[in-house]
Specification:
36% helix, alpha/beta, globular, seven-stranded mixed β-sheet, single chain
Length: 186
Amino acid sequence: MNKTVQLIYIKGIISEENLELLRSKLDNHDIGFEWHDISGVPQAAIRDLVAPIILSLSSDVVQAYILGLANSASYDLLKLSILEIWHKVTGKKYNKITSNGIQEIEASIELNLDTPGKMKFKFKLSGNIPDNLKEKCIDQAFQLIELKSIPENHTEYICSYDTDNEQWERLEQLDFIKKYIIPKNG
């Protein structure tokens, strides 16, 4: 198994020291940790569709969780790692260069979980989710990928957290675009 966690981030939002510490913790549980700084690299993504900071868990990590092969200590470490990165990102800003000049934008983070069956889940970990719900939010994200009620003919879901109902809203990518992106641009 190639159990890895990968972080795509913008330099300055999370320190190298914090990333090295996180790598050390994950290494102790045989989980690799890689990070890639995209500062200065042109990004052609719709901000509401793709977050500038992406934390991806390989399908091997997700499979170990689904099959119960990941012990509770490994799962707790993954959850704490996600929470730590989420906490570091919340409230941080970065500069985005557009045709209208430089804009300061609040950083957002996305948790990508790829299942062994090639389904992809993108969980939007926004800053508006209260701290007291963040742990529950991550637990529910992992529980959602276990559901057998997900149609196998769909391959990519984007999930946003409904803080009023304290649950994830799971939408196919096209439905997410229709609901959240087209109304803003239309």
